Amino acid sequence: MSIIERKFYNRxxxxxxRELLGCKLVRNIDGEIIQGIIIETEAYTQEDPAxxxxxxxxxxxxxxxxxxxxxxxxxxxxxxxxxxVVTEPEGRAGAVLIRALQPFGKLNNTNGPGKxxxxxxxxxxxxxxxxxxxxxxxxxxxxxxxxENNVIVTSRIGIKLAVDYPWRFYIKNNPHVSRK
Length: 180
What we know:
The protein has 180 residues and is mainly beta. The chain has one domain (6-171): 3-methyladenine DNA Glycosylase, Chain A (Roll). The chain has three helices and eight strands. Strands 1, 2, 3, 4, 5, 6, 7 and 8 form an eight-stranded antiparallel β-sheet that branches. Strand 4 (80-86) and strand 5 form a beta hairpin.
């Protein structure tokens, strides 16, 4: 086990989004470990109209401007949580939405951002959790590098603005991808 260090996240959001593929998302709930491999991500930056930080440092978006390597968890459609990893240097907003996991163990239905949060019990209480520390209860461990031909780069889904940005990444032929 090797937890990813903060410097990994202190880079371009697009690079981090691609390099998170194959890494392991781990959750500790009262000593029970739940985990899955990150197989699908989407990138969002402050210049992006689909990003919560596009209009600046609002109350909702303030977490996106904080130190890299923390979580950004928000509620959507009045029923789902979404889990993001904050990227870029502090003061510059960026985040990677974790869209899908390849489950193992007790995890089952993790082929979508709301589903993986439900399965891993990620809620607003984990907003700003330090993903570089095990004591936060939520962290990311290093994975194996993927060859370029095993990564699909395409436009994002489930949004209304900037849908043409090729900022969605997923592992080719993985059956747990949210939608193709």
